[in-house]
Amino acid sequence: MEPREVKPKTYDSEKITINLGLIDLGQIDLLVNEGFYSNRTDLIRTAIRNQLNTHADVVKQTVARRSLVLGMHHYSKADLEVALAAGERLQIQVLGMASIASDVPAELALATIESIFVLGTLHASAAVKTALAARIL
């Protein structure tokens, strides 16, 4: 049997939890019952998208100013080995999702990653996250 490359899971959403007052929740349920939205999540997702659209220019300017990578960025073991061989230290700055392959040893991550700043979510093994804890901003 030939070895296969393990591809990272792709995530298009992340679960969050919010607390709402009873009156707000009741109003949401009323709008759902009246057919304006298919469910609570639909209303909340729509409200968040509307707010993000309102602030889209600020987001674009901040992404450019901070030199953030927008979207999902994956760092494989090979990527980090190339950086190590070149004597490079990575400053990972992502708005969205950054992932470090599950086969990356903590020692390699420590040798190649100078800092991590993620607005969104970071996927990495527990060992890598623990090793880089002081470098995760």
From TrEMBL:
Pfam families: RHH_8 (PF17723). CDD domains: RHH_NikR_HicB-like. SUPFAM superfamilies: Ribbon-helix-helix. This is CopG family transcriptional regulator. One of its GO terms (biological process) is regulation of DNA-templated transcription. Coiled coil: none annotated. Gene3D superfamilies: Met repressor-like (1.10.1220.10). It comes from Massilia eurypsychrophila. PANTHER family: BLL4998 PROTEIN. InterPro entries: Arc_rbn_hlx_hlx, RHH_8, Ribbon_hlx_hlx.
